[in-house]
Each structure stands twice: as C-alpha cells, then as structure tokens.
Design a protein that fits this description.
The complex is a heterodimer of chains A (662) and B (536). Chain A is mostly helical and 662 residues long. Helix content of chain A is 73%, strand content 3%. Chain A starts with a helix and ends with a helix. With 536 residues, chain B is mainly α. Helix content of chain B is 71%, strand content 3%. Chain B has helices spanning 2-21, 27-51, 83-102, 111-130, 134-143, 145-155, 160-188, 195-201, 206-223, 232-239, 242-267, 269-295, 300-321, 324-355, 371-384, 391-404, 411-437, 454-472, 475-478, 481-502, 528-531, and strands spanning 62-70, 75-81, 520-521. The chains are: A mainly alpha (662), B mainly alpha (536).
Chain lengths: 662, 536
C-alpha cells in the first residue's frame, strides 16, 4: 500500500490538528515524529524494491472521470502512485530529512504555546503528505495536487507568526507568486492532455517513444503545429510552473521573503524539498523536454542566469537566513542547468546533496538564532565557534560541501552538472551549454565566496556583541540532526564520483542507478559518455581560490578590503544590498499597474458607464422626460385652458396665414 | 413515486401557510416550523436523490407528474427532474435548513414574516428547477422575486430600497423578454407550453431562433449575472440580510445558468452555436473583470459578490464549450459555487452579526481571538480559489480543460485567459483573509469577539464536509449529470450536423477534440490517401 507513505503524515496532521492542543507538546511531537519515521521506513521498503529494479505502480481508484457520449474517456484522473528510482530517491530524502527536521523542531519550537506547537506540527506533517503526493503521483494532475498542497503549507508556515503583518504578507506573496507558476503548470497540463489524451507519465512516455518532433498534427488543439512545437509549448508551460515553485527568475522573489517562517520550515520546505519540486518535474518529464530543444535551452539558460544573479545578491546580505535563501535560489539554478542540459542524474544528485547540506546549514542557522536570542544579523555575531562547537563544526562541513571542496558531496554533484552542461549539445541554441558553464562557474566562485564569508563572520574571529559573547550551544535534540546531516553531506559523495576507470563500478554510481528513468530522454538526445578531468580541476581551483579569498577578506590579512570596496563603490554596494531592487521594480511594473487598472475599471466601467449611464441614467432620463410632461399635466384646469387657447391661436394663425398667403 | 416531487415542492409552502395562521408573538415557534419543514423537505428530497436512475437507458425526466392546469391555453402542471435539476434541487433543500439556522439570532424583527418569506422562496426555487412547462417555469421564476424582494427590502441594511428596486427592475425587465419569447414559442410549437413537446416540435427559421435565443439568454444572463449585466448583484448582496445573500448566491444565480442549460441551449441549438462565441467572451471577461473588481472593494460582502461574477463566468464558459467535460464542469461548478460562496456569505454574516460592519478595515488580527471561525474561513477560501482536494478544483479543472479541448472558436485563447482567473482568485481571497484574520488585533471592539457557537458550528460543519467530499470523491455528484449532459451534447451534434449539411465547408464545432497523437501524421509519410486511418 503505497498510499500509506502519504497517509501516515496526513493522519498525523489530522490528529494533531484536531486534538493536538489538548495533548501537550510532548505527545504532539511524538505523534508527528513517529508517523514521519513510519513513513520513512515504508519509503525505504519501496525504495528497496525500486533499487532492485521493480517499479511499484499502484493504479489507484478513479478520482474523477468524464466520458463522452460515445464512451471515450475524455478526462480520467486516478489516484495512482508510482515509485521508481527517481521518485523513490526523492521520497527517501523527503521522509528522511523530514524526520530529522521534525526531531529538531521538537526542541526548536518549544517556546510556542500548546496551540501554536500543535499547529506547527500539523502544518509540517501536512506538508510532508503533500510533498509525497507531488513526488509519488503517477500523473501530472496528481503532481499538481501535491504542488498546490505544498504551496498551501508553505503559505501557512511562512505566515506561521501571522500577527506580524510582514510575515503574513510574505506568506501571501509566496502563494500568489506560486500561483502564477501554477497557471503555467495548468496550461502545460491542458496542452499535454490535448496532445496525449492523458497526463500519466508512464503512458505519455510510451506514446511519445520513438515519435519524431517533425510530425505534423492534423487536428485538435494544435492543428497545423509540429509535434515538437506543441511539446515546446507544453514544456514551457510546465517550466513556468517550475519557475514559481523552484524560485527561478523571474518568479524567485517570494523565496527570500519566505524566510519569515520558522527556521525548520526554511530548512525543510524552502531548501531541502518543496523548492526542488520544479527540478523533479523537469526530470520526471525529461522525455518530453528532450523532444523540445528550445525548452531545454530555456531551462538551462534561466537556471544559469538565476544561479549567477542570486549568487551576486547573496554577496552583500547581512541576514544569515537571507544569504542562505539566495544561496538556495542559486543552487536551484544549478540543478536546472543540469536537467536542462541533459545531465539529468547530476541535476537530481545535486538536489539530493543540496537537501543534506542546505538543511544542515539552515538548521545550523536556526541553532545560531537560538543561541543569539533570535538575532539573524551576521554583523552582530563572530567567534561563535567556541560557544557553539557542534553547530560550528557541522555548519563548517556543510559550507565546504556547498562550496565544492574536493572530498565533499557538493563538489561532485555541482561539477557533474557543469561538466554535463559544457559537453551538451542543444540543437536550438548550440552554445547554451557553454554559456551555462561559464555562468555556472562564476556562480560557483560566488558561492565559495559568500558561504565562506557567512561562516567567517558568524563563527570565526571574536564576538562582536554581548549577545554573541553569551551565546550557548543548543540541546542535543537539535545538534544530533545537525551531525547526521553533516555526515550525510560527506558520505553522499560516493553517489557522484566521476566515471574514472580507477574508481571501477563506483564511478557515477548514481548515474547508472537513475539511468532507467532517463534512458528515453538520453536516447532521444543522443548523449554520449564524456569523461574529462580538467573541468573538475577548474572547479576545484575556483572553489579553493574564492573560498580562500573570502577567508582572507573576513578573517585573514585582507580584512580592510570589504569596507574599502563599499566606500569606493557605494552605489553598487547599496544596489546589491537592496537585492538589485527587483521587488521595487515589480512593485512599479506589476503590482501598482494591476491595482490601478482594477481601480480604474471599477470607477469607469462599473460605476460610471454601466451604473451611471445605463442603469441609473436611463431611469433618470425617463424621470426627466416624465418631469417635463408632468409640468404640463399638473391638473390645473386654468393652465390647461391657457395651453389649449394658445395652441388654438397658433393653429388658427398658421391656417389663416397660409390661407391668406395663397 | 411521482408524487414525491410534488410534495417536496409544496411542503415548504404548506409550512409557510401553517406559520401564517399562528400568532406572530411567538418567534420561536416560527423558527421551529421553518427549521422542521425545511429539514423534512431535505430528507424527502434524499428520496429523490437515491431514487434517481442515472443510467443512459433511464428516462430523461424522472419523478414526472403531468396534469392539465389551464387546459384551454395548453398550460399543464408538468414537473420532473433530470440529473442537473436534481443536483440543484438537492443544493437548495440542503442549504435552506442551514440558512434558517443562521437567522436564529440575526433576525429579531418580524420573525414570522421572515420565515414565511424564506419558505415561499424555497418552494419557488425548487419549483423552478422542477418545472417542465414553460408557463409553470415562468410562474415559479417570477414568484421567486417576491420573497426575495421582501427579504432585501424589509430586512436589509441601510441602502436596501435602492438595492431591492434595482434587483427587481433588472430581473423583471429581462424576464418579460423571456415571457414574450415563451408566448411566441407557444404559437410556433403548435399551441403547447409543455417543455418536452415544445423541444420536439418547435420549428422556426434561423432568424426567429436567433431572436428567441437572445430573449431567453438576456433573461438568464441577468440572473447569472454575466458582464455587463451584473451591477445589480453587488448592491443586492450587500444590502440583503445574510439569509438573502446566501440563497441569492447559492441558488438564485444558478437559475440563470440552469436556464441556459435547460432552456436557451437545447431549445435553440443553432442559435446557441451562433452566439456562443460572444457569450464565451463575455464569460471570460466576467472571470477577469469580476476578480479585478473584488480586489478593490472595501466592503467584504461586495468583494464576495464580485467574486461570484468571476466564478459564474467559469460556469458559463464551461457551458459554452459544449464538450462533455465543460458542461459537466459547469454543472459541478454551479454546486461548488453554491456551497463555497454560500459558506462565505454565512461566515461574513457571522462576522457582521458580531460587529455590525461590513468594512474590511474594521477587522484584522482575528485569528487568535476566533480560531475556529478563522479556520473555517480559510478552508472555505481554499475551496473558493480551487485548491486541489477541495471541490473548486474539480470544477475549474473540468471547465478549463473542457474549453481547451473544445471545438469552440479560439478555444485555447479563451481557456488561457480564463486560467488567469485562477491566479486572480488567490490574489483577492487571500488578501481578504489576511486583512480579516492576520496581523495585530488593533480594534478594541474585536477584543471580546466570541468564537463560533455550537449552532454556528452546526451550520458550517456540513458545508466543510461537502467541500472536502466533493473535492476528493466527486464521482457521485458527476454521475447524475451525465445523462443530461450527454443528451445536450447529442442535441448539439445533431444541430451541428444540420448546419454542416447546409454549409459543407463548416468545421465541426461541438464536442471534444481528438488528442493530437490520434491525428498525427508522421514526417516521412507515404501518399496521404494511404495514411488516412479512420481516426477522424
């Protein structure tokens, strides 16, 4: 029963939501964690089957189904689930990292009252259920169910402290921005339905297998288009959805604000799982993207652009969570470079390793916030390595992992992406892979720089404030998950070892593992194995050089440099600190015109034209005309007599004048 | 079982008569009568629900009763239900007891008259859905105006007279057009008002059909209401008492869409095909326009009223697509809108009862104070914006995919623009939620606001259950509509065939398109004559 994987956390949400506030915190946490672990164990079993090569497909009952008069099923949506090596891997990450974050939260959220505590775990469990639906659903419609479900939970959790207006607003901003993406997703689904008549991944894949993109569609919604063009339309629609959910340009603006939520939420939803849903969707529908090179080029380029732009913004942020948020946006960009350029396994692998080290970083940041009394400004920290040794060590390991220092997992996954992009061929934009490689390398340099900066300012040097002076380490309930995640971000390296002969069958073990999922796309694209050493050396050098430079600038000999930079280029520094003022731009370009349009339409069309001229204008005109008549028909006999007399006189005069004239 | 429907129609009237003979000084008695009668009506209507046979072989209209009424004029008392009418009837009978409960404390003035008006209203609503005779339909349709007029005009708020006159004149003026059309139809159909007979024997030329369709369509479009005939709605909703708003939104608006489904479209299919493009464009404008209007309102009832314009635009778009999905989705969305917007008006009414203001700025930060109310409001909001798992999603998905896959002209652009409404819905509804419930609690008057009482929970709980059940298990609600939808599609296919016989260059315009893969021509194809594989 695959549904049990989803229903367990859902049951936890239902139970805690209904009676959680009366159970006491310990019981609430116990219920939530126990059901998460149960779900993890079940996922593990399902994953084991998938690893053995048996895809578990549960066709499910009908959700809704419309038949035409001739009995042809026009829409048939089922509650079907699929565990293959891709969704199985993701399910493991979601339930595994999810369980750790649940444990961590049990301590982190202690300061809430009973109601808030129960509410938190209700939302968190609900989120996991929705996320699992997204991943395990066997059709795009079911993925969309999870897709919107996680959006809802994200909304609720960002606005968890809803009494604070900016936090409530951040939640709404996230939901609405995501909905813009969901609009694209829906259009994509409709397009897929009109091309294939189904949105079930397996069936779509088998229908499209071997089809030529140059085939001509002769009827229906895409009459006159080639198959490739129609698929390009559909996949771009899906990718708009990915841009919303996975915070890519131009829809990334909600994610940094989403940091208003409690930190475990940032770790689970806004780093490890939900935001990677877009990457998952592109990977899941890789066989469609492979037939639409234009879409793949767009995915690659948008990913690369996002990676480099958000890395640049991260340079100047002073809020530890904001840096991590932009870093997440940037890393998601890397994943899209991977899945956009055909290096599917690398994109997904980076998704997995990123889940480990970014969750570790966020939870570490949460631990720091606990120690610092909820201060998030890294300028107020410093020297915390001595006060919070476990947090510092795990944060350090994760920093090295994300930076891409050699033996850690981030190196292999990120560099597999960059190497994959470099050697990729796109028939629509032949050089997009190389462009993405350059931009990605720049972004990697930026990553090394700002991540080391954060670590240095937070943990190295001397305490800069009293709060930092008196910071304390968090409880083991919080540090143990940190250590597990840190260790995972080391050992996950085995998944991404490059395919050098010396490594034997351990080379690219994850690529072989996921090969069945991506075989169709890889075959369509005609990708060949390409092994080269030098991109790895370049990447390693970049990480070391820029990481070292950052260390020197914030701890070592070049310490005056950042301040001098700010004074030399004050405008640029401010511009970067203000996140390139994209929010302000959207405000002027989108929000205000939208509001203005709505208001103008209301005043002009509704109030003035329809109401003023027609609805009230016509009665008023009639009233005016009848008023004129009323003036004459007022029942005053003398006036009637006068009018009759005057009229008679005029008549008589006309007749007589006419008569005389003749 | 054919008397059951008659009983269901007139039981509320009997309750109203009973109330009329009892003294006005005992308001509790009248409340009890109204509640009991509406509950019994609901339980009896369950007999209709379970007795309905949705198999394709079953009779089109079930629970039929047909007796002469004014035989010399060809008017009969002919009632019966198809699946769509049944669904809407169930919506009416299920909501009325909840509405009666909602007025328990809110209405203290002239309780007797209020309850009588409510029961007469219920009778007229059920009758409208059940009638199978054009004059009978018209009588119920107009009879409905009187109690509604009184509900708004007597128990409404400050600006009620303006609103109620506007409501009356708007709908009445449009209905007169329909009456003229009905009388014309009478003469063209061989002297009968019987719906089934008229549908079979009506034979008019293309121009006359077009005018008849328009006469019906305008009457129904006002009721829906479709842009630009919608401006009576915000006023009527705003000034009406909660009970009036709920029934207005949940049931009365559906009479317009039901009218299209039952009368305007099947009686004049060729004219409907001619005009559907215009109506679909107006529907899409309504979706976007209504959402934009909602966004700039300061009065929460007005906001919800404009959101109805948007939601009913979806229904009309689904109907005009003339695909099985679109029509089914349209019907389903009628129910959804009844449940979720009805629930929204009930909730807004609860807030109003506590604070006696409809201005959004007077609230804020209520979530901590009234968590149960806030929770309910959020769930209903999610249903209203069509989150998957709630009823709204199924309806919107069917309508939009049905339009996308339809053969109406510009099907994809229409569906594309309509889908933008999905974004806008989230914009204004979440804005409302945030302004009402989140942020700090600033107004002192709100500090003592009580949470939902058991009575209020009893009102909302069935609706919440419906929202989830209809979202997760929609099939039992879709199945009854199927025979009626299939018959309508069939009628349109015949009409389309007639038009294509007259004009061979005309493309088929009804039903769902084939998926592209069924009509795909491979690149290196042999000569076209051989590739034709009969999939068309």
């Amino acid at each position: 029963m695959l549904w049990a994987i989803i229903l367990l956390p859902l049951a936890g949400a239902a139970l805690n939501g209904a009676v959680g506030r009366r159970l006491g915190k310990a019981n609430v946490a116990l219920i939530a964690i126990a059901l998460m672990v149960g779900s993890f164990v079940l996922s593990l079993i399902a994953f084991a089957w998938a690893a053995k090569g048996v895809n578990l497909h549960f066709p499910g009952d009908t959700w809704f189904r419309i038949e035409g008069p001739d009995g042809r099923a026009l829409v048939a949506i089922r509650w079907g689930l699929l565990v293959d090596r891709l969704s199985g891997t993701l399910a493991l990450v979601i339930t595994g990292v999810g369980s750790l974050i649940h444990v961590y939260s049990a301590s982190y959220m202690e300061h809430e009252d009973d109601f808030g505590y129960a509410r938190f775990f209700t939302y968190l469990n609900l989120f996991v259920a929705a996320m699992l639906t997204l991943v395990l659903g066997d059709s795009m419609v079911l993925t969309f169910v999870g897709w919107e479900g996680v959006g809802l939970c994200s909304y609720l959790l960002i606005g968890f402290w809803y009494k604070d207006p900016p936090k409530a607003y951040a939640g709404r901003k996230a939901f609405v921005t995501n909905r813009i993406g969901d609009f694209g997703f829906l259009i994509g689904v409709f397009a897929i339905l009109s091309i294939f008549g189904t949105s079930e991944y397996g069936r779509v894949a088998s229908i499209v297998n071997g089809a030529s993109p140059a085939s001509l569609i002769e009827g229906g919604a895409f009459a006159g288009w080639t198959l490739g063009a129609a698929l390009t339309f559909a996949t771009i629609g899906l990718f708009v959805g990915c841009c919303g959910k996975s915070a890519q340009i131009p829809l990334y603006v909600w994610l940094p604000d989403a940091m208003a939520g409690p930190t475990p939420v940032s770790a689970l939803i806004h780093a490890a799982t939900m935001v990677t849903a877009g990457v998952y969707l592109v990977a899941r529908t890789s066989f469609l993207f492979a037939l639409a090179p234009a879409s793949m080029a767009i995915v690659t380029f948008v990913g690369a652009l996002t990676a480099v732009v958000s890395a640049a913004i991260a340079f100047a942020q002073t809020d530890i969570k904001k840096v991590l948020a932009y870093s997440t946006v940037s890393q998601l960009g890397f994943m899209f470079i991977g899945v956009g350029s055909g290096a599917y396994f690398a994109g997904v692998l980076h998704l997995v390793t990123h889940a480990f080290f970014k969750a570790c970083l966020f939870l570490g940041a949460g631990s720091v916030m606990h120690g610092m009394g909820d201060d998030t400004d890294i300028r107020n920290m410093g020297g915390l390595a001595k006060k919070m040794p476990d947090t510092a060590k795990t944060f350090g390991i994760a920093t090295l992992a994300i930076t891409g220092i050699v033996p850690l997992s981030g190196f292999f996954s990120k560099d597999a992406i960059l190497a994959g992009a470099l050697f990729s061929h796109n028939s629509w934009w032949p050089n997009v892979g190389k462009v993405a490689y350059v931009m990605g390398t720049l972004a990697a340099a930026g990553t090394a720089f700002y991540m080391v900066r954060v670590y240095a300012l937070t943990f190295a040097g001397k305490p800069r404030t009293a709060a930092a002076e008196h910071a304390h380490e968090s409880s083991p309930v919080m540090t143990v998950p940190l250590w597990i995640l840190a260790i995972l971000s080391i050992v996950a390296l085995v998944l991404g070892l490059p395919a050098f002969p010396a490594l034997g069958h351990w080379g690219e073990v994850f690529a072989h593992f996921t090969h069945p999922v991506f075989a169709q796309a890889i075959e369509t694209l005609g990708i060949e194995e390409h092994v080269a050493l030098w991109p790895f050396l370049v990447a390693w050098a970049v990480a070391v050089v820029f990481g070292g430079l950052s260390w020197a600038m914030y701890v070592g000999g070049l310490r005056g440099f950042p301040a001098r930079f700010t004074t030399t280029f004050p405008g640029l520094a401010r511009f970067t600190e203000d996140k390139f003022r994209v929010d302000e731009l959207y405000d002027v370009m989108v929000l205000r015109p939208f509001r203005g349009l709505a208001y103008t339409l209301w005043r002009v069309i509704d109030r003035f034209i329809i109401e003023g001229i027609f609805v009230n204008g016509i009665p008023r005109t009639i009233a005016w005309i009848s008023g004129v008549f009323r003036y004459f028909q007022n029942g005053d006999l003398q006036r009637y007599a006068a009018v009759i007399a005057a009229a008679a006189a005029v008549l008589l005069w006309t007749l007589m004048a006419g008569g005389l004239g003749r | 079982m054919s008397t059951l429907l008659t009983i269901v129609i007139f039981l509320p009237l009997a309750g109203a008569l009973l109330s009329a003979f009892l003294p006005a000084g005992e308001p509790g008695q009248h409340r009890a009568i109204a509640l009991t009668v509406s509950l019994i009506t609901f339980f009896l209507s369950l007999g209709l629900w379970f007795g309905f046979d949705a198999s394709p072989a079953a009779a089109e209209f079930q629970f039929e009763t047909k007796v002469p009424w004014i035989a010399s004029l060809g008017i009969g008392f002919h009632i019966g239900l198809d699946g769509v009418a049944l669904l809407l009837l169930m919506l009416t009978t299920a909501l009325t007891p909840l509405v009666v409960l909602s007025t328990w404390n809110a209405v203290q003035d002239r309780v007797k008259e209020f309850m009588i008006a409510l029961l007469v209203l219920e009778m007229a609503m059920i009758g409208t859905f059940s009638a199978l005779d054009l004059i009978l339909f018209y009588v119920f349709w107009e009879a409905l105006l009187i109690p509604m007029y009184l509900l708004i005009g007597v128990w409404g708020s400050a600006n009620r007279i303006y609103a109620t006159v506007k409501f009356f004149v708007y709908t009445f003026a449009a209905s007169v057009l329909m009456l003229i059309a009905i009388i014309y139809v009478f003469f063209q159909a061989g002297g009968t008002f019987d719906y089934v007979a008229v549908r079979q024997s009506l034979n008019v030329g293309a121009t006359a059909q077009s005018w008849l369709f328009l006469a019906f369509a305008v009457a129904f479009a006002v009721k829906v209401p479709m842009f630009p005939l919608h401006t009576w709605l915000p006023d009527a909703h705003t000034e009406a008492p909660t009970a009036g708003s709920v029934l207005l939104a949940a049931v009365l608006l559906k009479m317009g869409t039901f009218g299209f489904f039952r009368y305007a479209m099947p009686l004049f299919p060729e004219a409907a095909l001619q005009w559907r493009g215009v109506i679909a464009v107006l529907a899409v404008i309504g979706i976007i326009y209504g959402a934009l209007m909602s966004f700039v309102q300061t009065d929460m009832k007005r906001l919800v009223a404009y959101s109805s314009v948007s939601h009913l635009g979806f229904v009309m778009l689904g109907l005009m697509a003339i695909t099985a999905e679109g029509l089914t989705g349209g019907v389903y969305q009628m129910l959804n809108h009844g449940v979720s917007t009805g629930a929204l008006f009930l909730l807004v009414g609860m807030l109003y009862e506590r604070r006696h203001t409809r201005l959004i700025v007077e609230y804020g930060g209520l979530a901590k104070r009234v968590p149960a109310l806030a929770f309910t409001f959020v769930v209903v909001t999610l249903s209203s914006i069509g989150l998957p798992g709630t009823n709204g999603f199924v309806g919107e998905f069917l309508i939009l995919s049905g339009t996308w896959l339809g053969r109406i002209g510009h099907a994809q652009p229409l569906a594309f623009v309509a889908t933008i409404g999905v974004i806008l819905g989230a914009v204004y509804m979440l804005w409302l939620v945030e302004k009402l419930f989140f942020g700090p609690l600033t107004k002192d008057e709100n500090r003592t606001m009580p949470d939902m009482s058991w009575r209020e929970i009893a009102i909302m709980a069935p609706l919440l259950v419906l929202i989830v059940v209809m979202g997760l298990f929609p099939q039992p609600f879709l199945t009854p509509a199927k025979p009626a939808v299939d018959r309508l599609v069939g009628r349109f296919e015949q009409a389309d065939a007639r038009l294509r016989a007259a004009d061979p260059s005309r493309q088929p315009s009804v039903g769902t398109v084939q998926p592209a893969f069924a009509v795909l021509r491979p690149v290196a194809a042999p000569p076209p004559a051989e590739t034709h594989n009969g999939t068309h």
